[in-house]
């Protein structure tokens, strides 16, 4: 256990616990090791999770969760008031997994006792207020993995760590042909600065087909994402729009998965699928996919091909990377030279290692 482990909280029998995680889909998925740690520590607890409505699907069927409470990302004052009334002091423990004001306030209002994060480099007054109001708190530390940050919350609550990312329940896909070896490719990150090139994806698909694999592309429900994927694949690769549980089933049966820094890449790693993740500006020390067996050795900031467990991270290690910024022009629609110049041969090399389960 970490040196920061404290005496466990005394919550009494069948406690009610709320975990607040108001972030994007991948962040919510990486909160599940904390939720599993709470479940193992208090097996009779009712554990609810407060999320944004667009992220609730990534928790579908999670056996550690009693109820998922979804709120709008931009609620009206009336919606906020109603939610506060629903949550107010209903929980024996409320945990904020973020250092921001909104999730912290929800934890303070919902819990009779509470825990959370404060920004280590934030304004001194805000840091002092959160430390004074939260029963137990730790700094939101930069340079460590998101899952490690969640496990440090388990430490501060005095419960044993369970470093396991928990996937949604698997749901079979009737249209998927059995007995066919296939690769799953997800080419569409949310933002331009995380995109690889269209030519790169096409060269990758051609190489995978030469290796005897059918190639299945997956898409989310966003019509802009689908338009982008139609441009990438131009009808040469079938595109499937699936639910999160169906994606789990698809990934569990795949010989390999290849994708950029997205929630799907985190999900693929958690299923145990051999996973190749393309990283550019994002720092893998904080956001590299968490292998199914845990991350025994942290990711390095940059390299060519790194391997941890069932995950291979591919980078084009320019001197400036990982910058941790939003591309070369510092906005979400910016190109990233480190990805635009990433050769398809290197990604195929990583795919070959993943297919062979070769760490070398």
Strand order of the largest sheet: 9-8-7-10-11-13-12
CATH third-level topology of the largest domain: Rossmann fold
Helicity range of the residues? 25-40%
- Per DSSP, the total helix count is 13
Q: Give the overall pLDDT as a whole number.
A: 93
* Biggest beta-sheet profile: 7 strands, mixed
Describe this structure in words.
- The chain has 360 residues and is of the alpha/beta class.
- It contains 13 helices and 13 strands.
- Helix 2 (32-41) runs parallel beside helix 6 (146-157) and helix 9 crosses helix 10.
- The protein is globular and about 60 Å long.
- The chain has helices spanning 25-29, 32-41, 77-87, 101-110, 124-133, 146-157, 198-210, 223-233, 244-252, 263-271, 284-287, 337-340, 344-356, and strands spanning 16-20, 46-52, 67-71, 93-96, 114-119, 136-140, 182-185, 214-219, 239-241, 256-260, 275-278, 305-308, 311-314.
- The mean pLDDT is 93.
- Strand 7, helix 7 and strand 8 form a beta-alpha-beta unit.
- The relative contact order is 0.12.
- The strands form 2 sheets. It has a 7-stranded mixed beta sheet with strand order 9-8-7-10-11-13-12, sandwiched between helices.
- It folds into 2 domains: 16-157, Glycogen Phosphorylase B (Rossmann fold), CATH 3.40.50; 182-356, Rossmann fold (3-Layer(aba) Sandwich).
């Amino acid at each position: 256990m970490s040196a920061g482990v404290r005496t466990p909280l005394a919550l009494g029998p069948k406690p009610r616990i709320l975990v607040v995680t108001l972030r994007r889909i991948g962040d919510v998925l990486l909160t599940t090791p904390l939720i599993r740690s709470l479940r193992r520590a208090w097996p009779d607890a009712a554990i609810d999770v407060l999320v944004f409505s667009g992220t609730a699907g990534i928790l579908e069927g999670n056996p550690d969760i009693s109820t998922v409470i979804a709120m709008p990302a931009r609620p009206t004052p009336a919606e906020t008031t109603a939610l506060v009334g629903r949550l107010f002091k209903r929980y024996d423990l409320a945990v904020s997994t973020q250092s921001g004001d909104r999730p912290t306030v929800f934890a303070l209002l919902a819990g009779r006792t509470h825990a959370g994060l404060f920004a280590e480099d934030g304004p001194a007054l805000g840091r002092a207020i959160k430390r004074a109001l939260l029963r137990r708190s730790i700094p939101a530390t930069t340079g460590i993995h998101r899952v490690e940050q969640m496990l440090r919350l388990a430490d501060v609550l005095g419960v044993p760590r369970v470093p396991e990312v928990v996937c949604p329940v698997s749901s079979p896909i009737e249209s998927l042909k059995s007995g066919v070896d296939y690769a799953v490719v997800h080419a569409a990150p949310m933002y331009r600065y995380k995109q690889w090139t269209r030519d790169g994806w096409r060269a990758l698909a051609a190489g995978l087909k030469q290796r005897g694999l059918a190639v299945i592309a997956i898409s989310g429900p966003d019509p802009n994402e689908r338009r982008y994927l139609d441009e990438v694949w131009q009808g040469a690769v079938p595109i499937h729009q699936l639910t999160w549980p169906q994606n789990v089933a698809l990934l569990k049966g795949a010989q390999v998965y290849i994708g950029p820094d997205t929630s799907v890449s985190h999900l693929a790693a958690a299923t145990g699928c051999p996973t190749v993740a393309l990283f550019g500006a994002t720092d893998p020390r904080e956001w590299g996919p968490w292998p199914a067996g845990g991350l025994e050795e942290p990711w390095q900031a940059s390299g060519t091909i790194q391997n941890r467990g069932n995950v291979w991270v591919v980078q084009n290690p320019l001197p400036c990377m990982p910058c941790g910024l939003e591309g070369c022009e510092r906005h979400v629609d910016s190109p990233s030279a480190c990805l635009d110049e990433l050769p398809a041969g290197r990604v195929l090399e990583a795919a070959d290692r993943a297919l062979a389960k070769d760490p070398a």
